[in-house]
Specification:
single chain, 102 residues, alpha+beta, GMP Synthetase, Chain A, domain 3, 4 helices
């Protein structure tokens, strides 16, 4: 799967900050094209404004759902302040990811 420059930057920051076992980042911008959000935000042409993220990392051990999301959002603060309008985060430990598959 090829990623645009914003997605690539997101993946690099997540890799450096969380050493994930697995990352799935899906550009969901096309589904939001033409939707007007508060403040006039819309999916930009060419995508890379709305993403769905599933990340599996040992860094989430012992953390609640909100703490996990904060860890991810803190790493991506620059992208969320600029080109990325929406990011759906599902953050799992390796054990949780294994249980989800079984």
């Amino acid at each position: 799967m090829s990623h645009g420059p914003i997605a690539q930057r997101i993946l690099e920051k997540l890799g450096a900050g969380l050493s994930p076992d697995a990352v799935e980042l899906v550009d969901d911008s096309a589904r939001h094209a033409g939707h007007h959000h508060e403040g006039g935000m819309d999916a930009k042409p060419g995508g890379e404004s709305h993403f769905n993220l599933v990340i599996v990392s040992n860094a989430f051990e012992g953390l609640g759902r909100l703490q996990r999301q904060r860890r991810v959002l803190d790493l991506l603060r620059e992208e969320l302040a600029g080109p990325v309008h929406a990011l759906s985060v599902r953050a799992l430990t390796p054990a949780e990811a294994g249980n989800a598959v079984s």
